[in-house]
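ERR on first pass: missing label on line 2. Operator R.T. fixed the label and resubmitted. Corrected input:
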Amino acid sequence: MTIETNSPEETFALGQKLGEQAKAGQIYTLNGDLGVGKTVFTQGIARGLGITEAVSSPTFTIVQVYEEGRLPFYHFDVYRIGDIEEMEEIGYDDYFFGNGVCMIEWAELIEELIPENSIHVTIEKDLEKGFDYRRITITGLEGWENK
Ligand code: ADP
Ligand code: MG
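pass 2 clean. output:
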């Protein structure tokens, strides 16, 4: 599905709706250029899960864990990862195959670890449609409908 937004509030609201509907074990991958709205979207997801703590990108760690919501929320930013072994070192599989919701920024860098049933979110700008326009494409939600 593709959703178009025209403000950060709308992107946040979309994330919030998905967070409210998120299910244990879901993994979201999140791709898009710097400044496109990945953090805004992630903040929406977190709010939808019932997390009130401020969510920003995990700068010094690969994964940031939030446990105050309806489900645990594991926010990964693998941008600075050197190799796949670093993921093994942090025990990524406990998060990926646990009972929380994972959000993985820059998932393309660890493509071989991303499970088949993940949900892929891509955010893009289109300057012809305005400075605040974003096209948000979500695939992979279909398989989760009856879970
Ligand atoms: P990223 O995490 O992808 O680097 P951020 O979420 O930190 O990006 O920043 C997105 C920036 O774009 C914010 O300054 C936000 O206010 C702005 N923005 C403008 N329009 C939108 C929109 N439709 N959706 C999300 N962010 C938007
Ligand atoms: Mg960000």
